[in-house]
Amino acid sequence: MRTETVEITGHLMDSGILSRVLDDxxxxxxxxxxxxxxxxxxxxxxxxxxxxxxxxxxxxLQRLLMRLQTRGVNQVDPGEAEVSVCEQDGxxxxxxxxxxxLETEVRLNGSWVLVDNPEMDCGLVVxxxxxxxxxxxxxxxxxxxxxxxxxxxSGIKVRVPISTREEGGFGFMESxxxxxxxxxxxxxxxxxxxxxxxxxxxxxxxxxGPGVVHTGAAPxxxxxxxxxxxxxxxxxxxxxxxDIEAALYGTSLGVDLAMGQGxxxxxxxxxxxxxxxxxxxxxxxxxxxxxxxxxIMHALVTQGKRFVLVGSVRDDGPLPDVHTDVIExxxxxxxxxxxxxxxxxxxxxxxxxxxxxxxxxSIPLVCVDINxxxxxxxxxxxxxxxxxxxxxxxxxxEQLAVELVPDHRRR
Amino acid sequence: MRTETVEITGHLMDSGILSRVLDDxxxxxxxxxxxxxxxxxxxxxxxxxxxxxxxxxxxxLQRLLMRLQTRGVNQVDPGEAEVSVCEQDGxxxxxxxxxxxLETEVRLNGSWVLVDNPEMDCGLVVxxxxxxxxxxxxxxxxxxxxxxxxxxxSGIKVRVPISTREEGGFGFMESxxxxxxxxxxxxxxxxxxxxxxxxxxxxxxxxxGPGVVHTGAAPxxxxxxxxxxxxxxxxxxxxxxxDIEAALYGTSLGVDLAMGQGxxxxxxxxxxxxxxxxxxxxxxxxxxxxxxxxxIMHALVTQGKRFVLVGSVRDDGPLPDVHTDVIExxxxxxxxxxxxxxxxxxxxxxxxxxxxxxxxxSIPLVCVDINxxxxxxxxxxxxxxxxxxxxxxxxxxEQLAVELVPDHRRR
Amino acid sequence: MRTETVEITGHLMDSGILSRVLDDxxxxxxxxxxxxxxxxxxxxxxxxxxxxxxxxxxxxLQRLLMRLQTRGVNQVDPGEAEVSVCEQDGxxxxxxxxxxxLETEVRLNGSWVLVDNPEMDCGLVVxxxxxxxxxxxxxxxxxxxxxxxxxxxSGIKVRVPISTREEGGFGFMESxxxxxxxxxxxxxxxxxxxxxxxxxxxxxxxxxGPGVVHTGAAPxxxxxxxxxxxxxxxxxxxxxxxDIEAALYGTSLGVDLAMGQGxxxxxxxxxxxxxxxxxxxxxxxxxxxxxxxxxIMHALVTQGKRFVLVGSVRDDGPLPDVHTDVIExxxxxxxxxxxxxxxxxxxxxxxxxxxxxxxxxSIPLVCVDINxxxxxxxxxxxxxxxxxxxxxxxxxxEQLAVELVPDHRRR
Amino acid sequence: MRTETVEITGHLMDSGILSRVLDDxxxxxxxxxxxxxxxxxxxxxxxxxxxxxxxxxxxxLQRLLMRLQTRGVNQVDPGEAEVSVCEQDGxxxxxxxxxxxLETEVRLNGSWVLVDNPEMDCGLVVxxxxxxxxxxxxxxxxxxxxxxxxxxxSGIKVRVPISTREEGGFGFMESxxxxxxxxxxxxxxxxxxxxxxxxxxxxxxxxxGPGVVHTGAAPxxxxxxxxxxxxxxxxxxxxxxxDIEAALYGTSLGVDLAMGQGxxxxxxxxxxxxxxxxxxxxxxxxxxxxxxxxxIMHALVTQGKRFVLVGSVRDDGPLPDVHTDVIExxxxxxxxxxxxxxxxxxxxxxxxxxxxxxxxxSIPLVCVDINxxxxxxxxxxxxxxxxxxxxxxxxxxEQLAVELVPDHRRR
Lengths: 411, 411, 411, 411
Description:
The structure is a homotetramer. In chain A, a hairpin with a 2-residue loop joins strand 14 and strand 15. The N and C termini of chain A lie far apart (68 Å). The longest helix of chain A is centred in the middle third of the chain and has 17 residues, at 183-199. Chain A has helices at residues 12-15, 17-27, 58-69, 183-199, 211-214, 218-226, 237-249, 269-280, 283-288, 296-302, 326-334, 350-358, 372-380, 393-404; strands at residues 2-10, 31-38, 47-55, 74-75, 82-85, 103-108, 111-116, 123-127, 134-138, 148-151, 156-159, 203-208, 232-235, 251-252, 255-256, 306-309, 340-346, 365-369, 386-390. In chain A, helix 6 (218-226) runs parallel beside helix 14 (393-404) and helix 7 packs across helix 8. Chain A has a 7-stranded mixed β-sheet, with no helix packed on it. In chain A, strands 16-13-12-17-18-19 form a 6-stranded parallel β-sheet, sandwiched between helices. Chain A has 3 domains: 1-76, Alpha-Beta Plaits (2-Layer Sandwich), CATH 3.30.70.2690; 78-160, conserved putative lor/sdh protein from methanococcus maripaludis s2 fold (Beta Barrel), CATH 2.40.420.10; 165-404, putative lor/sdh protein like domains (Rossmann fold), CATH 3.40.50. Chain A contains 14 helices and 19 strands. By secondary structure, chain A is α/β, with parallel strands linked by helices. Chains A and D meet through helix 2, helix 3, helix 8, helix 11 and helix 12 of A and helix 2, helix 3, helix 8, helix 11 and helix 12 of D. Chains A, B, C, D: It holds the Pfam family ArgZ-like_C_2nd. Chains A, B, C, D: Residues 4-101 form the LOR/SDH bifunctional enzyme conserved domain.
């Protein structure tokens, strides 16, 4: 039996975090003794718990400690980080430290080094080639033989984002998802979050699925692009194709957007739309050639905004801009994360989870979908900062445009 | 083997109705031969099919013929209606004709008599006490011994409402339900339907569940009441209680409507709200006494509008206005159907199905819910005229108020 | 500002209960100071928190204290219960104590009196006519002028059921709902729970919806009735009607159970089945007369088991056994609760919530539905002991019969 | 206005196909006159309709004709196919014929040539290098400059699979999806379908999502592999990872499969499982090295069965066997389709739609999911032969193993 003393600090009393920590210990077949519990007496106070956790052997203990760090639990005496050398490209050493999406520091040679670009389920690569050591996250696929990677849970500290619930700011919910919320208030809160991000000089990242087009929200989204509230869009082949199909033929998977008469599917329109863009060479080329003259993708191109389209196995075509290699696609997405200050995910489970996987926990995150399962899944996968809004995507974006675009008029 | 010749007329080619008729025959273990099929050659033309249907014996055939009448299929030679006398209160004679919600005529003594108030799953009661015979629908629970009731399928003709799909009007969908529709267009169509009903001097019937209050849509609904677009409301104890709870305490099942912070449930507020109204004697009395000063129920009372609240087994209290006997409640609902020209069902499966059960097929019907199952269920129960809109109730009603109430301003 | 000191004892560290208590205080606009927190050091230890809670005035404080009691939070110095006299039939005095479903004691004249039949959202009626005072819960509708009812939160103690999570027994989940669970294990746990209840001489209560019949599970359920695992059934008109319809005509809302070919709906079969039973006089009479010879209702009658059918506003007919007055129906349900030791709810939201409303928290409760929302709703309404299983009802009951009925053979 | 005469033959009366054809014409802004309609008089008879369809110009007409062919509608006088030469790699000529998943013939030089491997949304590539011309489908991404591709709708005939509904065989439903079906009957029908495919010397193709593992169905699936009912598996990184994680650590995303106690997510186990397989080099290598000793993937390897894993943007790792390029992945999937005689899709929307995209309509297809939306989406995307079963995946596979594996015993 091996034991380590850990601590956790924060609004422990009212966040339910402690029960999750103890659940984790149980799940990993560990045991615990609560050594101290300094309770914040008043509602706004910080509490601190010191807990001795035990596991069968050192390997089990190290893994349990890594797990607890995803909750913001640190070792009282973290010691020095242990570093191993990778022996194979694309393979971490056994016992590698699996990273969290929290702000992380690593103790190397007695100094705490802040980890660049926090991301969950990565390795921590130590670069000591310069005067001062640096540490950054790296996904498994990108690691190379010879790289130095942190092993075990020693010498690591994480910091949980400060919850602003008590401060009247944007209150993150922890997986509280419901369609039974006053939706107009939620729209306003998202609008406020975007405004604050922009005022702070940050970028707003959108992640969207084809439902954005199917629900007739493309015009609202175009206005949001033009008003500067869409700096980057992550999507798949489907959103871009249906948007372009609608621009070229006035249909989206056969839904006649002007009349509101839906039909089953649109066979042939979408495949022809893709062929047209492939012929032009790229979405931008199609805009430049005057082939594509409207819609969300057109707005992004003409406004000089960024987009990353990553393919999936169900894609037709795909559009020439689509990354068909998903690992390449993930790299392209990571490259756009710098300076993102707000993220909104709309009508897509696949790309929402993909973005949640690479996003630091410090970035406010709202997930909007008519399907509660999408939002629940996101939170369950570790994006605990995610706020879920179960609502109609079309009406939500329409209302958001009313909030954010001064001269937005109802179509 | 007994055989009867039936016919069906209408847009048979493009409505899929014929395949449903043949499915019915199969389901009832019957057989058929298509004797004639006069096809409407052009898109707008009417088609007519003449079909010989057979079943094992006369009882089976009569039941199959009744079933086919729900599709608008009539006997070519309907003959005279057969009338039986009820022997027990609340029990129809064996072989009674089970009614449809379509416009129906019964042939008695050589004359066709139009049936009053079409309603499905009822008996047709013949009143020949006056100079001319009259026929009206009557639910099973209300029949009395000695009443004359139509038996078998002879002597009966039904007429399907004219589909206006081709005429560019309000196109009813047959169970086509999707959240992937341009929602703004659907909002406008509902607004148009309500306006047309009002212009025609008809009443607008609302059927609502507590989600109307939970989603923060009560203020929008209050404005719609004041603007005259809510003539009658059918609901249960829950909608009224949560509305009154919100008016008295600013909460609805614990959802703080001003802040958008939801909590699990509200225990105690709602039971106290009910007690308060019971003390006053009725919702109207509570308004008159100045106890209840806001919300949907208050608006209905002050605007002189009608409401029927029918209880369910899960009710607390209930409010004094609630019909605790469901059969009494159904009678109270039926009493409000005269002159209804448009019906919208919002966020309730129970009361939507209940209303669908008693509504003639001639009344346009829209069902709005975030849960696709609610809408599907309604259509499956026989309300084939129902149009389903899968969307967020809160945002939908907000948008509807924007469409219908000239000076509606966003909260 | 009024203040009271409360305490809570239990597995506070790992149940998340404390964060809910503090959420409640915030929701009621109260404030708190944590005076003491004695932490159970080891995993199985009991913790105890002493908290000073404040609210604006005495009324607000009393209501907050009542609210906290639903979480098992008691006043450190509860004092004597205050008793008020009802002035109107069916109306509690202002400030009445709204009961929880927990084991409750009331202090009267210096003695603690255990409350009979705990039920949430009721009043506590004091009967001091005998030698010793007695207290029992009473729903609002049943209170009479002159009755003595507890007011405010003083003089009341509640006790939360002992969680058996650590003891390896049947672990209740708190609203953890998922279709992604090893379903076979869950079936076995339900079977074990039923066996334990029967071995303890307790009754098994079933609450069922029509999905039991639609999914083809009626034969499995009949076997469970015969094997003695269904002592009482709570249901509506629909389950009984579709079961009887299937027994009489081999159909259930048009689903041909032998072939697995579903059709939309069954119009006419169900209304005729109801008429047949009404003619017989009751379900039992139909069995006695040889009219009804199979199905779930037949099995209940022939095995001498109990059932309570309560109507709803969407009912056709209804069957003669159905309570059409929902308040009468609730009374009939309450009358069957004595000695119930296990409750399983299958495929019904309406009757599940209704039963959850009247069931003491001490009775293990499992809710089985293919729709996650049903299970979530039940837990949100206060039945926090509910365990949810999201699965296919037909296959679940089939598997349950395999577990519980020795000679059960696959059809 | 351009006009063409088309015909359709089959069970037009009872399949609803004609109404869909006319809907398509309306959707494409076309017009029609029904020239002839030869009705099959008896229930089993074949009907034939001859329709003149018109569209604004030739391009619109050609596209409408292509659309109608997805319904099985052919030109009465199809003429000769028109062939264009591709000018760019990966781009079809404007006006290319967009293929269906139906059996297709192309008329070249007066002869009808059967198209190899029908697949929807592809081009038809003509290879006239040999003695006799051959035509095969090719997805857009794989076309090369210089290839000859069919343009327009002339010279093409399709044939709809013979519905066996009347013949008592495996009845395909057209998008009829319901959880309210007798599930045991549906299990048996799937078992029968698999047995028939095996008896005919055909392969059974499975498409699976991680829910197979989460619901505890892996042991049942392993038995089905061993019994020879899984010839090929299409899946993503998730199914394989969770299966391997469960085999290595006894967990799957943190669900403890033995105890049935679910937790939120499993962080760290799955990423370590992936690293372990990457270190081994491949799943087969891990089996050969004795690293992986159980689970579905192990069974496939040891039984010499095929699997194709295709990645998605949300993947961690991924496993070394995963195709990270989705277009490569589609090619790998296509390569396994030869001799597939039955396809079952379980608990995955992404890979089900992907497989539906490439599967000929002639292969029986069953989609099993607890979420109705998955099944609906599949049918809406053009896999009209899909039969949907909304049920619990874990219990379904358990029951399927009971049906198909003689010595299968309940765990």
